[in-house]
Structures are given as structure tokens and as C-alpha cells.
Amino acid sequence: SQQGEEDPQALSIQEGENATMNCSYKTSINNLQWYRQNSGRGLVHLILIRSNEREKHSGRLRVTLDTSKKSSSLLITASRAADTASYFCATDARSTLTFGKGTMLLVSP
Amino acid sequence: KAGVTQTPRYLIKTRGQQVTLSCSPISGHRSVSWYQQTPGQGLQFLFEYFSETQRNKGNFPGRFSGRQFSNSRSEMNVSTLELGDSALYLCASSLETLYNEQFFGPGTRLTVL
User: What pLDDT is recorded for position A3?
Assistant: First the structure.
């Protein structure tokens, strides 16, 4: 089974709205990363949060990490059509980097 | 700096054949990792190379192998291809470790007939 599981599997919103996607994992981690993948730019690193951090911001992105619940959330504020993509969390465990199945985000103009 | 490049971009092979994919990392990056992406299994880690040595390995059969050269360029080989090997193969590079920010190439789309 996947170490990281994103929720929801798909999300459809209007431009300007906020989008929240969640990631749950099973084993202890050192870091958790979020990546975005779309047809135009491929897979791109968004943000990394370490296990001793609770929250991190980067532009319109806000990531939280709750190690007690083994979960993370990615918030995209004031979404744009260009944010349409699949979003993956990636966790380090057992000497591998494990990606979840992803959340497909559709932002409509 | 130039990004991660992968060749070829598209490949069609038949069952039983073997294939070699190539990856050139960003200049100065010493860690190169390979991933397989399929609709059913998603993104799965194959292996990581650092300083010409395989440092980490995912849960794939021995038909999947790789190597890294002294200039950090990497190749991945799949022998005795199966239909299920049809996938997008992604290469990623980072400065020192796959556990930090990685830069991904555009991928090689492999189709096995």
C-alpha cells in the first residue's frame, strides 16, 4: 500500500477560490515534500517541510504537518487556472521516496 | 543552467526486448533518481545513484537496473520487457540527496507491444 495517500482524489474549483488537499502517511518520516505535475512543465517541486516543522509558506502555498496524526495539508490560496495540475505528496521512509497517487485539481476561469 | 534532459522521449519496444534510457542531470547535481509512473500504480521509486554507486533501491525486479557515470549522467536498463513495463520513466536530479528538492526531466514514454 502507498506510504502517502492524498485526499481528495479530484477537486474542482473556480479561480480565486482556495484549494486544500491532504496527505496521510503510515510510517515516521524526516521530511515531506509536495510536487505538482502538469502536461506543460512536468513534475515540479513545490515545498519541503521537515518533521520538526508544523507550518511552512511559499507564496500562495501553505503546508502544514501533523506528525502525531501522520498527515499534511497543502493549501493554495487565490487559485488560478494555471494551478490546474496533479499534486503529490512524497515521504521519505525505508530508504525510498514514496509518492502518493495524487490529487487532480481543476481550476476553472 | 540547463534542466534535466532525458533521451529518448518516446520509445516503442516489443515484449522480450531490452531498453536503455538515458538521463543527464543538472550540472553540479550528484544524486540521480529514477521513477516509473503508470495510471494504476502512480509514481514509484526505482533507484537512486550517487557518486556512481546505487545508494537506494525501490521494490522492482532485477530486470530493472541502472548505472551512473563519473559525470553524473545516468542510464537505466530494463531487460526482458513485459507489457506491464509500459510507463513514463522519469529521471530526477538533486544536489546531494533524493530527500531534498529534486528536479525532474520530461520523462521517456515507453510502450511495450
Answer: 64
